[in-house]
Amino acid sequence: MNRTTLSLLAGTAALAAVTAFAAFDAPSASGTAAPGTAAQLPVERTGLLCPAPSMSDIADTAYTSFTPVTKGAARSGEARMRPATGQSADGTEGGKGGKGAGKKTDEPLLAPKAPGTPSTGETSGAETPALIGTADGGFAPGWTVQETTEVAAGTGRGLLGVNCTGADTEFWFPGASTAAGRTDYVHLTNPDDSAAVVDIELYGKDGAIKSPLGENLTVKPHASEPILLSTLTDERQDDVTVHVGVRSGRVAAAVQALDDKSGGDWLAAAADPAGSLVLPGIPKDATDVRLIAFTPGDDDADLKIRLASPDGLITPAGNETAHVKSGMTTTVDLGDVTRGEAGSLVLTPTDQAVPVVAALRVVRGKGDKRETAFIPATAAVGARATSADNSAKGTTLALTAPGGTATVKVTASAGSEGGTPAAKTFTIKSGTTQDVDAPVPAGLKGTYALTVEPVSGGPVYASRTLAATEGGVPAFTIQTLPNDHGTVAVPRTEQDLSVLQR
Predict the structure, then answer these.
(1) Residue 7 pLDDT > 50, yes or no?
(2) Is the pLDDT reported for residue 22 higher than 50?
(3) pLDDT given for residue 94 in this prediction
């Protein structure tokens, strides 16, 4: 996903993404830049969007906001999360003549504390709206907001979590479904003052699925729309790849995947199509893992499938490769591939590199005690990544180094209600995944954040699993940890004055 929400007040700069670990580069160890190169400076303004958490009357949702301390960041600033209310540019709900017209909605749901300390907010029930947030000054660099929802019963029961994300113009979601027994919504949130026009395309096992109702969808300014996938087509397929393309404007997008029998979770957008992909942090006790892959180009893709285990890269027996036909969604059932050990899936081309998007559907438990989560392919941590809303007992941090041994520093923030920060350093050997013993704040009260910073070596990929057993069901949710884009590259300006001396 191309991120377009981060900016300096003086301008913006493109951020590079890792697309193949044949070309993995070691991350920068500092924010300094060599003469003649771009300088890395803290961002001064950013935006995050959180989808409406649930349609269940018995849903309880917690929000956690956190900004890591960033060297060189402004000392002042603020961050706010407000309901997406369909406001017009004059700040009233619904615009002229709309529902709630003339009603001001300026009260933030979440008021973050100083950088380095998490802040939390809670809501209940089915009426909780999507949230639109902005941060500036010292609150902007690496700002992270986590939305975590507990649903005790019904379709999609369990623990559902999602990192709130920035707006963009294109998203890929391999792993969605239109099957009976699944209720999948694409949530589209527009942060801007003008309407966005969006197309939703569906691709199944035989190629494109006719879905004319997914064309030219309008998302009003400052509004959010949940689109039920099964209303876009009559075809019922277990595994579908969803492509969200924005014709005008920009939106944030996420898929809420709810199952009648095996719980549900949020499916975040996969990393941009690439020849090599990493899907980090499959739980040790996963009972069923399914790979869903799709190639949007004209060529088929042949992929080598490997598991980065604690001891190195191994090839799953019977699933050494996958052939992904152009324009068709391909699935590979991997079963209990981790077999009680930490693991991450690593996909590389067997020959020619063809861009692919991919995600994993992961199941824990058996029978009527099953629970589901998703792991999309993700970008590397880069300079830094952050996970908010962690607990002392229910958090598992998985680190993967597919292209070379890496040293990684992990910092636990202060607790939201008290506690002293702590830090540990880990060495992740090349080709391995480790569920590390992440630090916990001393005297922890409330929730805390984990910040991952590679120190040396090859690129690192990460994910956080949050687990809680409810009524005998192993409820869990997984969030990947790509770069938090706390800094942006700003070209150095140089002027050759020699011409003036002639």
Answers:
(1) no
(2) no
(3) 41
Backbone angles phi, psi at 233, to 5 degrees: -155, 155
Instruction: Report DSSP letters for 450-472, one per residue.
Output: EEEEEEEES--EEEEEEEEEETT
Q: Is the dihedral of CA 435, 437, 443, 448 positive or negative?
A: negative
Residue 36 reports pLDDT greater than 70:
no
Using an 8 Å Cβ cutoff, are 214 and 246 in contact? Answer: no
Q: Give pLDDT, residue 443.
A: 96
pLDDT confidence of residue 166: 96
Instruction: Please state, in angstroms and rounded to a whole number, the distance separating the CA atoms of residues 67 and 143.
Output: 4
Residue with token string 């916990």:
440
SS3 state at 483: coil
How far is residue 182's CA from residue 51's CA, in Å, rounded to a whole number?
Answer: 19
Mean per-residue pLDDT over the chain, rounded: 88
The amino acid sitting at 449 is A
**Measured between alpha carbons, how far is 237 from 245 in angstroms, rounded to an integer?**
21
Residue with tokens 């294109």: 170
Calculated CA dihedral for residues 264, 268, 269, 273, nearest 10 degrees: -80
- The pTM of the full predicted model, rounded to 2 decimals, is 0.88
Contact 198, 219 (CB under 8 A): yes
Residue 278 CA, chain-centre distance (Å), reads 14
State the Cα–Cα distance between residues 55 and 58, nearest whole angstrom: 9
**Token code pair at residue 320:** 């050494």
Is 229:184 a contact under the CB 8 Å cutoff? yes
**Of the candidates 345, 63, 52, which has an alpha carbon nearest to the alpha carbon of residue 224?**
52
Q: Determine which of 287-301, 376-390, 465-479 has the lowest per-residue pLDDT on average.
A: 465-479
- Amino acid identity, position 35: P
* Burial call 107-120: b when 16+ CB within 10 Å, e when fewer: ebbbebbebbbbbb
